[in-house]
Amino acid sequence: MRKIYDRYRSHYKDNFHLAYPVVISQLGHTLVALSDSIIIGHTGKVPLAAVSLGNSIFTIFMVTGIGMSYGLTPLIAQENGRGNRARCGHLLAHSFVINMLTGILLFGGILLVGHYLTHLGQSADVAAQAKIFLRYLAFSFIPLMLFLTFKQFAEGLGFTRQAMNISIIGNILNVLLGITLVYGLFGLPRMGVAGVGIATFTDRLLMGITMTIYVLRSPRFKAYLREFNLKAIQAATLKKIAGLGTPVALQYIFEVSAFSGAAIMVGWIGAAELAAHQIAISLAAMTYMMASGISAAAGIRSGNNFGKGNFTDLRRSAIASYHMVLVLMGGAALLFLFGNRLLPAFYINDPAVIHIASGLLLIAAFFQLFDGTQVVGLGILRGLGDVKVPTLITMLAYWGLGLPVGYLLGNRLGFGVEGIWWGLLLGLLGASILLFFRFQAITRRLEQQGEMQ
To answer: Coil, helix or strand for 142?
Structure first.
């Protein structure tokens, strides 16, 4: 154990300093949904189920946007590794165009899905409140894409702390404003589900504006922004960024839509089960986003080392990231095991919902390590520009294995919501193993090529 630590010690340190602000920033996306659930949960299981449904649907759109914005990050890391600073501003301008168009398109998509919620087989009272919530989330989407554009640019260059600070302040604002509007404090009317929607929109609007101003006005980015020109957009560069961003978006979609699809299947069982699913999935999503922060940092380091042609450090840094996520998710698994009854009580006072959620958290504890290693594997491969095969792997794991098995166990064989979750666990296991084999094959080949040069 000591020999392993000594071998990777410098990489642990470098990865940690790069990763922890990204972890907190990524966690901010989940904490918005988590705080919304906690705030609304004490008003009843129907509002909680409505927020669960709304967040489950919105998450598919959100991760699509995150994936599209991520097409910029490995390119920035690689160009910075080659010393091509001015090229980074050129890439940012093209990413801005792609992300704003994506934001407008997905804004319309969220409104459209919200309009047809009753066709998804959900109860009428849950669907009615979820529709209200989704409307506000739709309007928050374009500011979110603005934030992601400049966040991915800064993080690709290794500047990760400012997005973290903005996310922390934004989440505090979301909680304070959400409580005020939901419960009608300071003489305001009680707004219920609409209150958490307005709070989330306000949070994301201010975060998008602040992150944009920071990047465009900070002296540290001046050398990188010399070629930032929205009038010099080239089709070839748009295609290059979209060629990375689109498969990454699909990777996110395949995984998250599996969990969102699971929410719809759980909704067929009952409102109590759906509320319990929301509690457990919001906690699991929180640990996933923390792991995705390590994944993003691993991608930045991999891209930077790839640009430099330093393949030995690339592989060692990547393995160090695997070690870090195993420690993180191992701790999360223990938390879920020993806190499986305590944690749901923070959301709701309904004993039936707490009982169901506690069982789901035991399953979540089992899949923490698989969830962490698969997302880190994806991050490393993205840094290398390898996105097509990993996309196929995620599609097969989640849509070809996880969802069908979950449907069979939960809705056909009578295992209920827990059967659906065992199917999801199987999908995560498959993705984790296949992505690790892919990582091993590519990085060993690169390391051998480096040794022969």
So the answer is: helix
pLDDT confidence of residue 376: 93
Distance CA 288, CA 296 (A): 12
CB atoms within 10 A of CB 112: 10
Which residue shows structure tokens 């919304």? 36
**Do 21 and 163 contact (CB within 8 A), yes or no?**
yes
| pLDDT band with cut points at 50, 70 and 90 for residue 301 | confident
Instruction: Tell me the Cα Rg of the chain.
Output: 21
Predicted confidence (pLDDT) per residue in 355-372, tens digit: 998 999 999 998 899 999
Separation between Cα atoms, residue 77 and residue 299, nearest integer Å: 9
Strands (E), 167-311: none
Number of domains in the chain: 1
Classified as helix, coil or strand, 353 is helix
Weakest mean pLDDT among 178-192, 232-246, 314-328, 376-390: 178-192
Q: What is the pLDDT of residue 452?
A: 59
- Do the Cβ atoms of 233 and 169 come closer than 8 Å? no
Residue type, 45: K
- Residues 421, 55: Cα–Cα separation, whole Å: 18
Amino acid at 156: G
- Decide if 371 contacts 428 (C-beta within 8 A): yes
Residue whose C-alpha is closest to residue 191's, from 179, 181, 203: 181
The tally of CA atoms less than 13 A away on the side-chain side of residue 113 is 21
Residue 69: name the closest of 245, 209, 208 by CA. 245
| Residue 222 DSSP code | G
Domain range for 254: 2-452
- Looking at beta carbons, which pairs linking 404-412 to residues 24 or more positions away fall under 8 Å? 406/258, 406/262, 406/265, 407/265, 410/265, 410/266, 410/269, 411/265, 411/268, 411/269
21, 209, 284, 290: CA torsion to nearest 10: -10
Instruction: With cut-offs at 50, 70 and 90, classify the pLDDT of residue 139.
Output: very high
Q: How confident is the model at residue 352 (pLDDT cuts 50, 70, 90)?
A: confident
Question: Whole-angstrom Cα distance, residue 116 to residue 391?
Answer: 29
Global pTM reads: 0.78
CB 296 within 8 A of CB 44: no
